[in-house]
Amino acid sequence: METKTKKLKKSLFYWYKKNKREFDWRYTKNPWNIFLIEIISQQTQINRANIYYKKFIKKFPTPLSMSKSSLKTVLKMWSGLGYNNRAKRLYDSSKLIAEKGFKNIYPNFEILPGVGNYTKNAILSFAYGEKVLAVDTNLERIFTRYFGIDNVQDYINKYSNLLLHNVDSRELNQAFMDFGSSICTSNNAKCDICPLEIECEKYFIKTNNPIKKFKGSNRELRGKIIKLLVNKNQISKKELLEQLDEADIRIDNALKGLEKDNLLKIKKNNTIEIN
Description:
- It contains 14 helices and three strands.
- It has helices spanning 2-19, 31-40, 46-59, 63-67, 71-78, 84-100, 102-105, 117-128, 137-147, 152-164, 169-182, 218-230, 237-244, 248-260, and strands at 235-236, 264-266, 271-274.
- The chain has a three-stranded antiparallel sheet with strand order 1-3-2.
């Protein structure tokens, strides 16, 4: 496994030097910039995320600038990305970062809303150069197929130091991300042009996770409600029913979920506004 790990690292960097994707945020160590792109790119194709990143970093160059804005403004800029909870967590995080400062949060970034182990390690690697692996689905997929293993975490526990030895963790993590999204893709992997093909175990695991339809889903309805609200100061439930042409129970359920997530508030007179 040690020899195979060394071959993986060598082949991966050889490929990466020729195929590295260029993004502005790859040339900064500013933790706010890194945090911003990591939140925006969750469940979003990176090229699309990059478009939104440019808009957000121009409007909010610092966490303080976002914290002084409003959730409504952030949601309006977020429109089109989906999963509005992420926008809420981003806004809440900006307030916490503005209050405490990155230097007083480091290295415990998991205290920020919406930050799990991957995002924490991505910030530690890309902004601070820490020797950590940012384990996302790309990296897990590569390890599973190449080594023919089911338990990726066991491998990481044993061999992460070898992978990270004598390399820039920023470059290593970015290489895995680019390789996973370009060559070792979740569907239709390009094994015929893969530099790891000779050593790869080609351990493809079939998953039974059906793709959830967006059209007609509760997520789509939530998005429509937020879109209406960011363009108005408030809206009555009656107006909502008229404009959305949806069953009362569907709208009620969507409103309850949005209220629970602190994205909106429903007043006693049945008017609704962004929280």
